[in-house]
Amino acid sequence: MTFTQAHLLGIEHLHPSEITALLDLADQYVDLNRQSHKHSDALAGLTQVNMFFENSTRTQASFEIAGKRLGADVMNMAMEASSIKKGETLIDTAMTINAMHPDLLVVRHPHSGAVDLLAQKVNCAVLNAGDGRHEHPTQALLDALTIRRAKGRIHRLSIAICGDIAHSRVARSNIMLLGKMENRIRLIGPPTLMPSQINEFGCEVFEDMREGLKDVDVVMMLRLQKERMDGGFIPSEREYYHRYGLDGDKLNHAKLDAIVMHPGPMNRGVEIDGDIADDINRSVIQEQVEMGVAVRMAAMDLLARNRRAKQSGVMV
């Protein structure tokens, strides 16, 4: 198994073989998580600290469950009540945490690059749980695992990513991962929600939803990132749903066996029709949540192995 990273800060620096290695291990953890006894000792004796500077439900819960199932001592820091609010800098917070000798640090932060900065200041493995508009690597990996299990492969598929591309770290990580795995990627959305450097992404770009969804294998919807919008990016939610919300009519332009994805939380009736989201024959949204725990278990397991190997002087 090939995985040489000391941290998981993004998809950009992962080799395709490392992505495959992580997904293969995650597959094993899917099997473990479906058993009555769901525990492993892969992280026994290690300490995992979760630092979420932004609110999160799915990501924080799945990292916590993942760590506990692997036998780690897990601590969730309430950052809204932390010394950051009292004026402490991010560097000082990092140094304080480092002095407690954690082994794994999971960080979500509203500013792009903040997690990378923390990784330079601590002696433990750092996992990026989302930083600003930059990256959300474990979301892209769980999406890849979901696609691979549904389609039997994660390469040479036609995949549409639809909606708020400009503000989405999920889209950014998925574009990189799916591109590394030789997929054909289509980006669909209004010009106001496309990043200015869109031409550098190597993707096909569509403004018309029906045209963009024609014959795709995967339809990946995105949440409108209202908290990151500072202007009139859409005329109204009603108009947005009419043009870019996924309903039965638009989905009919995709392949008959196309799967529907959404990273959550969903705005039903804005980004996606509720009946489509709940369609057990097309939607894999609940599977994405399940895969999230397995992928995060695999990521922490692999980083812990590398950390132990480095400490013992054995290269893996």
Please give a structural write-up.
This protein is α/β, with parallel strands linked by helices. The chain has 11 helices and 9 strands. The strands form 2 sheets. It has a 5-stranded parallel β-sheet. Strands 2-1-3-4 form a 4-stranded parallel β-sheet, sandwiched between helices. The longest helix has 28 residues, at 285-312. The protein is globular.
Which term fits the overall shape?
globular
The beta-strand count equals: 9
Which structural class is indicated by helix and strand composition? alpha/beta
Name the average pLDDT. 92
List the strand order in the largest sheet: 7-6-5-8-9
- Low-pLDDT segments: none
The biggest sheet amounts to:
5 strands, parallel
By DSSP (H or I, 4+ residues per run), the number of helices equals 11
Rg from C-alpha positions?
A: 19 Å
Distance between the termini: 9 Å
> Helical proportion?
25-40%
Question: TL;DR?
Answer:
This protein is an alpha/beta fold. The protein contains eleven helices and nine strands.
Properties at a glance:
globular, 14% strand, 316 residues, single chain
Architecture blueprint of SSEs:
Layout: H1 16-33, E1 47-52, H2 58-69, E2 73-77, H3 90-98, E3 104-109, H4 114-121, E4 125-131, H5 137-151, E5 158-162, H6 169-180, E6 184-188, E7 204-206, H7 209-212, E8 218-221, H8 237-244, H9 248-251, E9 259-261, H10 274-277, H11 285-312
Parallel strand pairs: 1-2, 1-3, 3-4, 5-6, 5-8, 6-7, 8-9
Helix pairs in contact: 1-5, 1-11, 2-11, 3-4, 5-6, 5-11
